[in-house]
Amino acid sequence: MANPRGGGGARHLPLRLRRLLRSPISRCAGVLAAFAALLLVLSLRQVDRVALPGHGHDPSPAPSEQLWGSNGDGSHACVTPTSRYMAPKESERYMTVRSNGGLNQMRTGICDMVAVARLVNATLVIPQLDKRSFWQDTSTFKDIFNEPHFIKALEGDVHTVSDLPQSLQSVPRARKHFTSWSGASYYDEVKQLWKDHKVVHIPKSDSRLANNGLPMDIQRLRCRCLYQALHFSDPIENLGKKLLERLRSRGKFIALHLRYEKDMLAFTGCTYGLSESEADELRIMRERTSHWKLKDINSTEQRSEGNCPLTPEEVGIFLRAMGYPKSTWIYLAAGEIYGGDKYVSKLRSYFPNLVSKEVLATKEELDKFNNHASQVAALDYIVSVESDVFVPSHSGNMARAVEGHRRFLGHRKTVTPDRRGLVELFDLLQKGELMEGPKFSSLVTEMHKNRQGSPRKRNGSLPGSKGRARLRTEESFYENPFPECICLTGKH
């Protein structure tokens, strides 16, 4: 790569990167402490003589514990009901639900509905799954989930039935869109719906409950539902276990949720690195998708704000900078990657041991899941939760759900890329003002030292947000169920 243009050196780096350059980690990168700042400025003008991907040897590997160690610090799940929690009361109220969205949007929505049924003392009818969204999946509840286990596991919390009693099949139903991010007091008022109707239908299930401020027993019920009751069906669980066995026979592995898929790129308006024709194709898709409200998107601004998924090549640069050697096994948890091998090959040049379910499973094993996007996504979910390290290239329902589950299971290592910060570094690489090597690696690792899934309380709303809009900015309960469902001391 070329030397930096002009004589500005580190003075022209973004503020957040200048701070990293002043950190102890960077000062230790081969320079004397007394002259660290000066030498770092000067060294940014020099070309690092490092092996490029696909050539030579790996950089010095990071310690194994740093790469693979858990962040649990003694944390454990704690979802036992409090002493005030009572068995569900007999009720003639029934609640039917249509769960909307993809797999993980439906999963968390179903558990919201379980908690709502408890709050209003209604019998929950097994939800109908979304067959009309982008995924166009005709799967029923029992195709994806273990229905008998779900009903049995929740019998101490909520009455659940497979279908309405015959006597209620044709009765008029009230139809109610529950307000998003609502608290317990809202559902006390909602109970009035059952005064005039025995059955109330809920057409949307996602985000019907607040993230914070709910009774402890309701929060723990949401966790029991998602992590203990809502198991996948036997065919999905069985193949998921086989994939894990085949991966583990190779050693430790990273599950990479690579959101470099056509729908994600079109929705976010992210076209960096794509050809003009590919960018046009995504723009047309966005314009033709009626429920995507934002049509005109500045791709450059999106990327600089950290709103774009990392490209496959950027993921390769990132993981190598974090210290993972070229020999690392990576499981690609994703749908069809936009551009196919044209872009995936750039990640493979960094990590040749790149596999997916299509590589690990036989054609016969996968045939039964063909044309069922949610069932296929469930396989990726199983592998991602059980992986040694999970890395999402973009936030989303899958990334949040997997991160929350891994926190629940002992804060397994989840490395969440700082996309905004990384874009600044990638742009410096592109300009030749920074090179891949020890200094670049120290910047990346310092940037991510607190982004690896260690225990922390759930984040509240963003500063400046007001009214109900602030609730949208809170961290999802299912992304981080601490402190309600995770304890740091004592035993479960």
Can you put this structure into words, describing what you see?
The protein is an alpha/beta fold and 492 residues long. The chain folds into 2 domains: 94-229, Rossmann fold; 234-461 and 471-488, no CATH class. The protein is 40% helix and 8% strand. The protein contains 22 helices and 12 strands. It has helices spanning 15-21, 24-27, 36-43, 64-68, 103-120, 141-144, 147-153, 184-190, 216-229, 234-248, 262-268, 276-288, 299-304, 312-321, 341-348, 357-360, 363-367, 373-386, 397-408, 419-431, 438-447, 469-472, and strands at 76-77, 94-99, 123-125, 128-129, 160-161, 174-175, 199-202, 253-257, 329-333, 354-355, 389-392, 486-487. Strands 2, 3, 4, 5, 6 and 7 form a 6-stranded parallel beta sheet that branches. The chain has a 4-stranded parallel beta sheet with strand order 10-9-8-11. The chain has a two-stranded antiparallel sheet with strand order 1-12. β2 (94-99), α5 and β3 form a beta-alpha-beta unit. α5 (103-120) crosses α9, α14 packs parallel to α15 (341-348) and α18 runs parallel beside α19 (397-408). The protein is globular. The relative contact order is 0.16.
Number of strands: 12
Please identify the structural class as seen in this structure.
alpha/beta
Low-confidence stretches: 1-12, 24-57
Mean pLDDT: 88
- Determine Rg (CA atoms, Å): 25 Å
Span of the ends, CA to CA: 54 Å
Structure characteristics:
492 residues; alpha/beta; Rossmann fold; 2 domains; 6-stranded parallel beta sheet; 12 strands; disordered N terminus
